[in-house]
Amino acid sequence: MSKPSASMREPTYFILAALQDEPLHGYAIVKRAQELSDGRVRLTTGTLYAALDRLTGEEMVQVAKETVVNGRARRTYELTGRGLSALHEEAARMVAAARVVRDRGVRSTAATIRTVPA
Questions:
Q1: Which of 41, 49, 56, 113 has the fewest C-beta atoms lying within 10 Å of its C-beta?
Q2: Is 37 exposed, middle or buried (0-12, 13-18, 19+ CB in 10 A)?
Q3: What pLDDT, in 10s, does the model give residues 100-113?
């Protein structure tokens, strides 16, 4: 049996989630990650590009297209199969972790109801 992978940091999770529907350029990734996280993840330019460099090296994202806009290079990134798998594995890990709390809460509530005098 393989060792479970370490949990993914929230910014990484939302960068990958931002790319699951379509390739995006940096600013669009920042906006989409913020939207998907209900404002919890606010990526700075430096944080985003450091993460994209790391994720590219880990083959989770790749440059889909590079264009020049107003004299500046603009890269559009896309999720790879490996990145999509990692995103789905992390989502499953979080669901399983939430289930532990949710199911315990149901049992605790049921126990409380049984012990309260009528």
A1: 113
A2: middle
A3: 888 876 555 555 55
